Amino acid sequence: MRNILLFVTLILFLASTWTALTKGRIEGPSANPDSPVRNIIYTHVPSSICSLACFTVLLVTAIGYLATGNESWDHVASATAEVGTVFATVLNATGSIFSRAEWGIWWTPSPRLITAAVLWFLYVVYLILRSSLPGSKQRRARICAVFAIIAFLDVPMVLYTARFMEDIHKASFSFDNWWQRGPFIMGMVSTMLLAAMLIWIKTDVLKIKSRLEAE
Amino acid sequence: MNDIVINVKSVSKAFDTRNVLRDIAIDIGTGQAVLVCGINGAGKTTLLRIIAGLLQPDIGSVKLCGYNIRKDPEKAKSKFGMISHKSMVYPELTVLENLSFFATLYGVKDSDAYITKLLQDIGLFSYRYDTAGILSRGLLQRLAIARALVHRPVLLLADEPFTGLDAKACHHLINVLNEFTKNGGTIVMTTHDIDIGIRCCNRVVVLDKSNLIFDARTSDIDTAKFLKDYIGYARSAT
Amino acid sequence: MRYFWFSLKAIFIKDIVTELRAKQVLPTMIVLGMLIVWVLRMASEAVLQSEAVIGPVALWIAFLFAGLLAQERSFATEQQQDCIYALLLAPVDEGTIYLAKLFVNIVLLSIFEIIIIPVVIVAFRLNINNWPALIGVLLLGNIAISSVGTLFSAIVQLSRARGALLSILVLVILMPMMIPATFALLFVFGAIPQEMAGTGALAFIGTLGSAVGYMITFDAVFVVACWLLFGFAIKE
Fold it and tell me: What does pTM read for this prediction?
């Protein structure tokens, strides 16, 4: 089942990438309408959605672990944090590249860019905390769950700050035809599937590792 | 007279992948002084901490005087005091301030007169205005005992209380523990010094490889044979 | 309820007395704060007429790092002689321990504030238009730093890189608050004319009121969340 899903994910991912690069030129008010960098939207937006979704999964697993003490919640949390970090890195990197091409600056303190940066920092600090806490696995899982909940509360605070800031980052892309819309939807679906598959695989690796250590 | 003070039911605990306690069940009644023996890593301190509510068991439950330590922590915690090889007192506070602080935390009413009497009984009255940080190890352990008894508990948990004490301090502690049980108190103690432990206790249990393997009254055992068998058992186990 | 107040008061007084007798953290906080302010003052020499803007920034940075020192201390003292176990053995709710430690940290940071504000005013030649607003904004910042720091201080106690770990945990959570907090101070010190507030002429579209409103919301959310989660953080 998982192998089939993995295969489907990879096919979708490749198809959406190919279509985006060859057919899916996105138009929109821009200083440089011919810039191919605007196709970075096909990676940037799905990464943004994925990294926020991973953060929500992290919250759910944190609450799950604190409520039940079941190690499986912690395995999923660990896997989700790693995958979320990857997507947050892609989000910030693609955002920077697009920002430089579109507006001539690598970064500016606009609300969405601040949110992206804070999200990345929250993930990275979570991973550092997970790797540097001494004590038993149960204690580490509990502390990471506490941090995940506090970190999740930080995200709406960032969005609330954003209300008070000017936003250079306008949703300025639009789709003219299905050659553009199609790869975007495919990219969204395949990225979400990819994230889910990576979390699934990593969780299984952690479960096997835990079982081996027990033996 | 023989009410159950501690009820440990099917308690199991593992740290990471290591089973420390496996299906431990024991009832301890009023006036019993129980010595918990075992080699290093047998789970003695873990068991004591689970009884004290400092650790949660993976499976099982603990009740102190009928109160579940997890569901009714405040009622259960008011029933016992604990001492260990660390004094658990604040070095910057005086002897009197330490005891007043803990008396307040335990909700002890009219604590001043009782604290004065406690200090006199323990032999710390003349040191009451000294900061705990300057006390010797023996005096610090007396302060620890006073802290553990300030709220008049019915149960005393003692985790390696004789560690680092000289002969005089050991003798004083033994007297305090014997006096406590004579007045109807219950003790659960761990110590590597089996001779001293048997002098203070009327019941001995042995933990080995996370299981409870021996449980008898000290009056029913031949101490020399028990020591030989216990040490002999430990040798063959390793 | 009476018991809750007695326990809270007892732990609060115990911590304050312990710190006043040990004299470990408060002097270090004050000296660190002053050093940060003067280093930033030296650094700002290169940019003319920037003191009114850099001054409030220097104040927050000094606040943050001095606050981290205070919070690291709050559970470090409990590690001596395993005193934390004595607290956990007592029939005291963990939330009460958190609130007491929170109030202690707020008091220590307030003492630090009283000393550092004149230093910042002198170093950066600032004028204060609105003293009540200044005290209010700093108090809200104080509560934010202390609420998050007290919880994380309990978390990092057993770690060897305690100070560094505490720093990154606290700073990452406080990041969003720094924008409205800094703008609030800029308004209070008159670095930004009030008439420009809310006009869109600034990067910060809000007013002093909206910045303060944000800080109140931040404090309320994190004090409650940290209080509720403290029990999970402190257990072994």
Answer: 0.89
